[in-house]
Amino acid sequence: MIPYGKHIIDEDDISEVVKVLRGDWLTTGPIVTDFEHGVAKYIGVNEAVAVSSGTAALHAAMHALEIKPGDEVIVSPLTFAASANCIVYMGATPIFADIHPDTLLIDPESVIHKISKKTRAIIAVDFAGQTCDYVALKTICEEHNLKLVGDCCHSIGAKDEHGNSAGSLADISVLSFHPVKHITTGEGGMALTDEPELAKRMRSFRNHGINMDASARSEKCTWVYEMQELGYNYRITDIQCALGLSQLKKLNNFLKIRRQHAAKYKTLFLNHHEIKPLITKKDALHAFHLYIVKVPAHKRKAAFEGMRNQGFGVNVHYIPVHYHPYYMENFNTGPGLCPVAEEVYEGIMTLPLHPGMTERQVDSCAKGLDAILKTCP
Asked: Which pTM value belongs to this model?
């Protein structure tokens, strides 16, 4: 089976992890800070806070922005559930805005219509690896005194039409280092910001709400610390961050291969009457975490099963969050809430795309989908 996404680990990665295993710090040590500095420099932000997952980063962002019960936060429905769950963790209400049908990115016009007196923030999801329209979203936030969070778990290495890096375009941006992402720490995530006070709040939040972690106490030769607010154990280990640092050195090459494979798919599907790739915005640089195509909705199930049976690990990203039973039962969501996202969902399919694939496998996958669709009634 060729999976839709897969990590690549080499001997250099293993060697860096082994160094930490033989060292003095396994967690909350200097390699965590080194990884934070490395990612911050790569993206071009002042502050980075490494945590245990992308979900933890989202939760920390909501905490830093002081989202509270009674607040509303606008988010895309076509995303992994964590993008909305982080709002619920704070006792607030997620409000789903619709998306553009060609890019599957949140639609600023829909966002405007969903703003109420309770709205406090917007979470923009860089779906599949392409940046949202942050210019329009920032304008909306300024007009309505809202905060902007960039869910960039798909988009490290991407740039918008103006050359700005994904992860640098919002008040707080978050990354994921899950094994199917561009680089991995096994599990892990990071929150990025230019505001020191937000970073300070997130660092405390990842460590039970305590104001000083173990390495800082060691450096200052003190046992004293204070739990100043309620936080969580969202710490990441030096073991994971050693892997992340090693992977970061390979990121540009990983991105190059992803873009080459995406270009190959695009060429193979050019003018295809049933397979339609998503649109890449002019002058933007896509990170291609996912390669998503639209197929006829009535053929999607048969195409999915046929591809899986032939060894192609296709997937569907995502079931709209407002379709999940939890949201339907607790927030009265359901069909009709976001018509564009709902219609698009019926015909999208994710094809395998990762740096471990060969050009021949890309070609085989594309031709396999074409052949299967021709046999579907």
From this structure: 0.97
